Amino acid sequence: MKKWLVLFILLVGLAGCNQSKDTLDSLRVAEVTRSIFYAPLYVAIEKGFFKEEGLTIDLQTTWGGDKTMTALLSDGADIALVGSETSIYVYAQGADDPVINFAQLTQTDGTFLVSRTQMEEFTWEKLKGTTFLGQRKGGMPQMVGEFVLKKNGIDPHNDLKMIQNVDFANIPNAFASGTGEFVQLFEPQASMFEQQGIGYIVASFGIESGHIPYTTFMAKESTINEREQAIEKFTRAIYKGQQWVYERDASEIAKVIQPFFEETELKLIEVVIERYKNQKSFAEDPILDEQEWENLQNIMDEAGELPERVDYEKIVNTNFAKKVSE
Predict the structure, then answer these.
(1) Strand order through the sheet with 111-115
(2) Which of 194, 209, 224 finishes a domain?
(3) What whole-number distance in Å separates Cα of residue 316 and Cα of residue 5?
(4) How many separate domains does the chain show?
(5) What are residue 33's DSSP bridge partners?
(6) Residue 12: CA atoms inside 13 Å, Cβ hemisphere, count?
């Protein structure tokens, strides 16, 4: 066999190997925290829904809205999973390449009001005159918390003692150590406190505040324009995950996502999933609707944290979500 023919065959073979290796498109995703709240995302990964769409997902946890947005803006990530309010902050700063919300993952606040004592009949009036351990000032949980208090006739700064200077990671420990009669907590800490007899869930901030785009997938406008097919495939995989979560019971979902929460008991994961499903915190589809967007801005405005009101069409793109949901 002639040398050039052997060389040609080798080159074709190598090209074939490279092609098969590159058939899966890769997307780097930065999540703001690791949370059972994001169960449909982990289901989509574990059940192979991204692979079905020809995608590989490089998931990194960036621990905090500021760090997550920095990763996205500096091209350290292609997609960010973070609160929609961050896209408003970026837009208000006059970004040349705005951050666009294209798929919604959670549609309510994920925190709960935990009381130090059991209450068979809870009313919001019972918070008056107490010490309330709230979330960090300026964050979405704190904004929702104050919004709900006001909605229920409580002046957060006059009717009770509001503590907002405790670091997010230390809030559970502060309450467990005796600070406050009430605390605003995320899961699984809220359910864990119930199991341990440290506190008792008496209300849901998610139910009280209504539907808002609490956590969404977003990308820079340039990324969406350059990688439309990949963004559509990503959104379709998320929709599959959302459907799967609402079609299965909590025990099955917990088993699928447990690899992401190896230090959390399976039964506790089940309890948290059941609670979030019952109040429909997981979005049932990736479409971020206009009413949800307005609710978000109203809450931010009420808290004095809205830099400017941003039209829905400017930084929300529902084309992908509507297409995959048809």
Answers:
(1) 161-163, 131-133, 182-186, 111-115, 200-204
(2) 209
(3) 55
(4) 2
(5) none
(6) 6
pLDDT, tens only, 247-272: 999 999 999 999 999 999 999 999 99
Rounded Cα gap, residues 188 and 262, in angstroms: 13
Among candidates 88, 147, 107, which has minimal Cα distance to 303?
147
Cβ–Cβ under 8 Å, residues 58 and 79: no
Q: Which domain holds residue 119?
A: 111-209
Residues 6+ positions from 203 with CB-CB distance below 8 Å? 112, 113, 122, 124
pTM score, two decimals? 0.91
CATH of the domain at 182: 3.40.190.10
- Give dist(CA 27, CA 187) in Å, integer: 28
The DSSP output letter for 199 is -
Dihedral sign computed on CA atoms, order 270, 179, 118, 183:
negative
For the chain, the helix, strand and coil percentages under 3-state DSSP, each to the nearest 5: 50, 15, 35
pLDDT of residue 2: 40
Return all residues near 6 (Cβ < 8 A) that are at least 6 apart: none
Backbone CA torsion sign across 71, 75, 80, 82: positive
